[in-house]
Automatic annotation (TrEMBL):
Matches recorded under InterPro entries: ATPase_NBD, Gcp-like_dom, T6A_TsaB
Entry's Gene Ontology molecular function annotations: transferase activity
GO BP, sorted A to Z: tRNA threonylcarbamoyladenosine modification
Transferase listed as a keyword: yes
Keywords attached to this entry: Transferase
Domain of life: Bacteria
Protein known as: tRNA (Adenosine(37)-N6)-threonylcarbamoyltransferase complex dimerization subunit type 1 TsaB
A Pfam family per the record: TsaD
Length: 232
């Protein structure tokens, strides 16, 4: 099965094509950016598909990161994944940004994203894989205390905020990886293993929206709107 993975939830627009039969990434690209995801994503998809030597209609699954992240940014990849899935007759699936950031850890790991106002979006997983803190919007100090108690590695763009609140006298984190966005190859492989019915491509918001969101529209209409933005 061929699969396309998309991420616009955090500080990049990322696309990858995965051949699940061989577990090989045929092509991928990540472009760091704070804004402009909607204008850049579909051209990036076209470039990656061309490099992979396939068309979108050849893919059977379309994966998007679902957040937490930018309230409007994450909707770009979700709308594109769902729209392409409908157009190609495939299915769509969603992967949490926190889960993608945590993937592959050998011990306890805290995935965190700075949510500002003294809070982070965070998920803490124990060394045995137990979910100690499900994805949540939590105070930085409380999160830092939990991470230090469990000797966790820190991952994600919220790492700086957690380190600033690290309890005095506590052992340092087991590791620090302040990556600004998930590895799109990891997102693709997680999406291949996901049950599309249990992991829908649907926004994951962990707190009330600060800004007014666009009114809901059908996925195919959202995708067509994105396509119009990038058409010459």
């Amino acid at each position: 099965m061929l699969l396309i993975a998309l991420d616009t939830a955090l500080g990049a627009s990322s696309v990858a094509v995965l051949d699940t039969a061989t577990d090989r990434i045929l092509a991928s690209r990540s472009e760091p950016m704070d804004r402009g995801h909607a204008e850049r994503l579909l051209p990036l998809v076209a470039e990656v598909l061309e490099e992979a030597g396939i068309a979108a209609r050849d893919c059977r699954r379309f994966v998007a990161t679902t957040g937490p992240g930018s309230f409007t940014g994450l909707r770009v990849a979700i709308a594109a994944a769902r729209g392409m899935a409908l157009a190609a007759g495939g299915d769509s699936a969603g992967i949490s940004t926190l889960a993608a950031l945590s993937a592959g850890a050998s011990g306890a790991v805290l995935a965190c994203i700075d949510a500002r106002h003294g809070h982070v979006y965070a998920e803490l997983t124990g060394a045995d894989g137990t979910l100690l803190l499900p994805a949540a919007y939590v105070p930085v100090a409380e999160t830092a205390l939990m991470a230090s108690t469990h000797g966790a590695e820190l991952r994600g763009p919220g790492t700086t905020a957690i380190l600033a609140a690290w309890p005095e006298g506590a052992p340092p984190p087991a590791g620090i990886d302040a990556r600004a966005f998930p590895d799109i190859a990891v997102v693709a492989r997680m999406g291949a293993a996901a049950d599309a019915n249990l992991s829908p491509a649907r926004p994951l918001y962990l707190k009330a929206v600060d800004a007014k969101l666009p009114s809901p529209r059908a996925p195919i209409a959202q995708f067509q709107a994105l396509r119009r933005k990038v058409s010459p």
